[in-house]
């Protein structure tokens, strides 16, 4: 028997999780119910977040920072025109998630809490310098996206905590590109690349490159990015960044591709995505 | 609020009719449709949200019946394939599927028709690319896609 609880406030949801330590939060169901149907999850209680009105929707503050509530469907994020500059990388990633019915159901909170490394949001959120807002009995806290994704299907959420939203800092002059290599549209990625670039007078002023689906968590090399700041972001320099990223990956052989293949394609994907983002940034400035 | 709520009666609005059905917290909408209410148009295919055979409309948009918990559907409008035709009067999408022979074994058909119905409501005259994108979450293992896309585009009157 499984309890089904529908708290109306965040505080009630926290109380539910405290009362049922093995409960699972339900947002859209696209992940949790699939796991239950596959026999991989059998929670004694389900805490549905859908009746907590404050958790759905996207808000943009005066300083340009955007907050995506955990219950926001992929469909909504994929169409949100107010996600601009670096934030656009999250919208672009949402557009590539699975197929339309899944985007009608699935939410950003549910997706990232499952932390499938081959999903679309992890690399995009790391490239966007996002912070994950979580709540628990001790109150709320923010976790940098890079630190939120800990390992295969493992996040930094502590017992009794859940994700309430994702905060995207503003970088309106930057341009974003999200590339996903798939066998067929709608599938999980063989590899994903999320890129943010800003240019000023032919010089790179902001560069962020995150690679997903190639190991337990998104990979981003901040020191290698920093080495390219101030330069023209030429093909050779970007190729070196791609080479170092490929070295830093820990890809597996799976049904979609081999580990070797992933290491082979990632530098090419990085080269193309950074070039496209640079062109987009220069066209906008 | 109650901290333990297991077998409960859930009130579901399906095809404009209210149904009070018993459901455990983990009962899916698909199970209620097929096993409690006998609405067997929605099929159980992969039970993982991949194939689309269980597609129903939730507040007018296609979702996976197998991934919706019944208890979470209270307060929403659910449309199944049984709710489209009025007696023998088929909808334009259903007519188009018949006219184009867009049915082989038929297992995917109810999901295909519902997804197409939602598409035409949002985009009344989809072209082939729009139809293919919208229908991409519904698999046909007979691989009869061409006639299905033809039917969807024809139902919208575009070419």
Please explain how this structure is put together.
The complex is a heterodimer of chains A (285) and B (159). Chain A is of the alpha+beta class and 285 residues long. Helix content of chain A is 34%, strand content 24%. Chain A has eleven helices and 13 strands. In chain A, the strands form four sheets. In chain A, strands 4-5-10-6-7 form a five-stranded antiparallel sheet. Chain A has a three-stranded parallel sheet with strand order 1-3-2, with helices on one face. A three-stranded antiparallel sheet of chain A has the order 11-12-13. In chain A, strand 12 (191-200) and strand 13 (203-212) form a beta hairpin. The N and C termini of chain A lie far apart (59 Å). By secondary structure, chain B is α+β, with helices and mostly antiparallel strands. Chain B has five helices and five strands. Chain B has helices spanning 29-36, 92-99, 109-122, 128-134, 145-156, and strands at 8-14, 17-23, 55-58, 61-64, 77-79. Chain B has a five-stranded mixed sheet, with helices on both faces. The model of chain B has no long low-confidence stretch (mean pLDDT 95). The interface between A and B is medium-sized, with 37 and 33 residues.
Question: Features of this protein?
Answer:
heterodimer; A: 285 residues; alpha+beta; five-stranded antiparallel sheet; three-stranded parallel sheet; globular; B: 159 residues; five-stranded mixed sheet; 5 strands
């Amino acid at each position: 028997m499984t309890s089904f609880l529908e708290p109306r406030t965040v505080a009630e949801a926290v109380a539910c999780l405290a009362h049922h330590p093995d409960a699972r939060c339900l947002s859209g169901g696209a992940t949790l119910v699939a796991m239950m149907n596959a026999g991989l999850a059998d929670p004694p209680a389900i805490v549905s977040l859908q009746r907590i009105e404050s958790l759905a929707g996207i808000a943009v503050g005066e300083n340009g920072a955007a907050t995506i509530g955990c219950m926001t469907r992929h469909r909504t994020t994929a169409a949100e025109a107010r996600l601009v500059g670096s934030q656009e990388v999250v919208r672009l990633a949402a557009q590539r998630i699975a197929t339309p019915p899944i985007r009608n159901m699935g939410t950003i909170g549910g997706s990232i809490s499952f932390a499938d490394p081959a999903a679309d949001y992890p690399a995009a959120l790391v490239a966007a310098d996002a912070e994950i807002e979580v709540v628990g009995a001790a109150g709320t806290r923010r976790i940098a996206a890079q630190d939120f994704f800990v390992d295969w299907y493992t996040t930094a959420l502590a017992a009794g905590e859940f994700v309430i939203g994702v905060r995207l800092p503003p970088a309106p002059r930057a341009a974003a590109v999200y590339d996903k290599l798939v066998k067929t549209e709608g599938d999980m990625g063989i590899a994903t690349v999320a890129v943010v670039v800003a240019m000023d007078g032919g010089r790179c002023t902001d560069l962020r490159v995150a690679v997903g689906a190639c190991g337990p968590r998104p990979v981003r090399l901040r020191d290698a990015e920093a080495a390219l700041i101030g330069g023209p972001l030429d093909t050779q320099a970007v190729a070196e960044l791609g080479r170092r990223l490929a070295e830093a990956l820990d890809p597996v052989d799976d049904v979609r591709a081999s580990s070797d293949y992933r290491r082979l394609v990632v530098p090419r994907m990085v080269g193309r995505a950074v070039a496209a983002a640079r062109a987009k940034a220069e066209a906008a400035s | 609020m109650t901290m333990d709520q297991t077998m409960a009666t859930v009130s579901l609005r399906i095809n404009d009719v209210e149904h009070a059905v018993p459901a455990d917290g983990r009962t899916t909408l698909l199970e209620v449709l097929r096993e409690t209410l006998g609405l067997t148009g929605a099929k159980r295919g992969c039970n993982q949200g991949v194939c689309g055979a269980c597609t129903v409309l939730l507040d007018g948009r296609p979702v996976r019946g197998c991934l919706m918990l019944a208890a979470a559907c209270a307060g929403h409008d659910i449309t199944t394939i049984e709710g489209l035709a009025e007696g023998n009067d088929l909808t334009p999408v259903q007519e188009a599927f018949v006219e184009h022979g867009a049915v082989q074994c038929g297992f995917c058909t109810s999901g295909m028709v519902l997804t197409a119905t939602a598409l035409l409501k949002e985009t009344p005259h989809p072209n082939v690319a729009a139809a293919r994108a919208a229908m991409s979450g519904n698999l046909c293992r007979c691989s009869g896609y061409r006639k299905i896309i033809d039917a969807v585009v024809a139902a919208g009157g575009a070419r």
